């Protein structure tokens, strides 16, 4: 029998979690979903044949709430409690990259609607799909989602999703959003929508009293930031050599390579973010996608680094406006980072923002300023 709620209660009893009515209710619902899944007759079984059709499977659960409220933890409890071979837990962006690759293959065949065979193939591979951090940022994904998931649910796939946003706020103000609205309707009518917005921000707790700006760059700072990354993401120690990366769309058909990307936390080098020709659109894409950014290798800047300094100003503006948490290793304090050069006066605002971003009040804010 599934044991999502039992395992959740054990974590509370052990003091690893604090009592939270919304978390407890979500654990109960996930436990009920796991039980219902295991009651669905297996393909080819006597009950399957007696029905004379594919047995109805539950559509699933959409779990949303602020950063650090336990969404991923509950999904992991659910995933580990479902005793089914054909199950898959995947980051949403990785899933969509796979979908686009499959669609390209089907389009080359020039035989009918490519979404139908893609959905059928996915349904043949998995019966339970778990997505962490659904976040729709571009029109192609928005155009595909409602039709793809309509077919997946029709094929009997059960979906569990987490998101920082309620369904109605997905792809808000996005291009061609009218094509995306059927996907929102699908979530709201077919799936259970559960909110997790309890008082405890576990991700903030895991940061503890960590220094957010480490000086100087070097092995000690790198080790501290690495430890912070794994605390924030709950990544298993045995898998730390295989942290996922990501290609983040930044507009105009371009992408930004994210060397480490997990559960809304990203690691970048200063050189990648500010040493290359990048602009506000790139930094806004980063700020919207991630709630925490770790930057390593920030050098002391001078007159010869005016372009890098200007890009750094734009980057910090975007992170600050979206209330992104920043952990960094640098060769100087914020005040000593850029003491001479063009734009030095304007850089004072960046210094002020960096100092505020390390404050307790800023760290308590939710991503996006909510």
UniProtKB/TrEMBL annotation:
Keywords of this entry: ATP-binding, Cell cycle, Cell division, Nucleotide-binding
Tree of life domain: Bacteria
Pfam families linked to this entry: AFG1_ATPase (PF03969)
CDD domains: ABC_ATPase
InterPro entries listed in its UniProt record: ATPase_AFG1-like, P-loop_NTPase
GO biological process: cell division
Protein's name according to its UniProt entry: Cell division protein ZapE
Organism field: Sphingomonas oligophenolica
GN (gene name): zapE
């Amino acid at each position: 029998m599934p044991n999502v709620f039992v395992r959740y209660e054990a974590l509370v009893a052990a003091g690893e979690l604090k009592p939270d009515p919304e978390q407890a209710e979500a654990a109960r619902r996930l436990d009920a979903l796991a039980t219902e899944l295991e009651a669905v007759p297996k393909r080819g079984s006597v009950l399957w044949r007696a029905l004379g059709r594919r047995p109805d499977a539950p559509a699933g659960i959409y779990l949303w709430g602020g950063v650090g409220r336990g969404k991923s933890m509950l999904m992991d409890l659910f995933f580990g409690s479902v005793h089914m071979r054909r199950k898959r837990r995947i980051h949403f962006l990785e899933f969509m990259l796979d979908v686009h690759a499959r669609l390209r293959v089907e389009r080359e065949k020039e035989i009918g609607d490519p979404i139908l065979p893609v959905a059928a193939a996915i349904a043949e591979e998995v019966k339970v799909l778990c997505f962490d951090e659904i976040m729709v940022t571009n029109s192609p994904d928005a155009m595909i989602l409602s039709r793809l998931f309509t077919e997946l649910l029709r094929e009997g796939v059960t979906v569990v999703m987490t998101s920082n946003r309620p369904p109605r706020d997905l792809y808000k103000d996005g291009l061609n959003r009218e094509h995306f609205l059927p996907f929102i309707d699908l979530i709201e009518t077919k799936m259970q929508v559960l909110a997790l917005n309890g008082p405890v921000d576990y991700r903030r707790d895991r940061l503890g009293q960590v220094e957010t700006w480490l000086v100087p760059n070097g092995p000690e700072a790198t080790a501290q930031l690495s430890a912070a990354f794994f605390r924030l993401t709950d990544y298993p120690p045995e898998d730390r050599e295989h942290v996922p990366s990501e290609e983040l769309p930044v507009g105009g058909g371009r992408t930004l390579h994210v060397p480490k990307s997990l559960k809304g936390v990203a690691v970048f080098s200063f050189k990648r973010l500010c040493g290359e020709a990048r602009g506000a659109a790139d930094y806004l894409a980063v700020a919207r996608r991630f709630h925490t950014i770790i930057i390593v290798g920030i050098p002391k800047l001078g007159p010869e680094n005016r372009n890098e300094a200007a890009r750094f100003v734009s980057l910090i503006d975007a992170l600050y406006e979206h209330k992104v948490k920043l952990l960094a290793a640098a060769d100087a304090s914020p005040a000593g980072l850029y003491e001479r050069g063009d734009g030095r006066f304007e850089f004072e605002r960046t210094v002020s923002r960096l100092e505020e971003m390390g404050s307790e009040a800023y760290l308590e804010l939710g991503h996006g300023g909510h």
